[in-house]
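Hey L., structure's done. Input below.
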Amino acid sequence: MNALIKSRWPICALTLLLCAGSPARSQSSTNTPVPAPAAPAVKRPARPVMRFTEPDPLEFTNHDGYVSLFDGQSLKGWDGNKKFWRVEDGAIVGEATKQNPCGNTYLVYRDMKAKDFTLKFEMKIVGNGGSGFQYRSQTGIPWLIPISPAVISNTGPVNLDWMMTGPQADFWPSQIYTGQFYSENTPMRIIAWRGQVVESFGDDRKRLMGTIGERRALGELVKADDWNQYTVIARGGTCLHIVNGQLMAVLVDDDPNSSNNQPGLFGIELESITLLYVRNIWVKKLD
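Output:
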């Protein structure tokens, strides 16, 4: 038996020597590199939704940001010849008759001047008379057109405080003028007829830039003997006239010295033999 042990001793010694030279498996595992923690995910902003949209529908009665120029009960803030102007049933009434002729006369709103704005009002004419709404206008300027002796006999000498010079949103349902851009008491007179987009260059030159529609076809949208919704948008040298939701005329006048481009007063015209009603006058002033 001793001989057997002696014969196996070299093998055991070699085995021990090999094991001593090999690192332990557990020791090897402790030297494995530890992976770094993952970086936090970057939160990317949400992509905007890209789509085509329609504007909100027309809402003439929306008055957010507007101020009222008429309290529905009195002519507070307004200045004109009381022979022709009164308040009745929540509306401003202008009336001229053969027995009480006015020629041209104006009810001037004295409590505001504006250049850039959106104006909304409702207007009605009973019969065949004419009117219009003045804006960016002045008073006290000599009148260019002769006044009828019959008018002077009825009203006395012309009071220039009640005569307005400047842009007008025309309103004459029985004629072709409603919606046009008229320059009152200046040589320019009708600058943009109904249905036109016009560029103006001073007192005596203008150019048609495009058309909106046929003049008489647009007139079918104007209501005779009934209320009409009128919107005037004035921004810089551009003015738009909209009647009952339909664009009627556009003027572009970039001349800074033009009477069309000056801050001014609002007012209502009474012309010829006319029975006129105006109500719901609202302005969003931007300047």
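The chain has one domain: 67-285. Residues 197 and 250 are 5 Å apart (CA to CA).

-- N.
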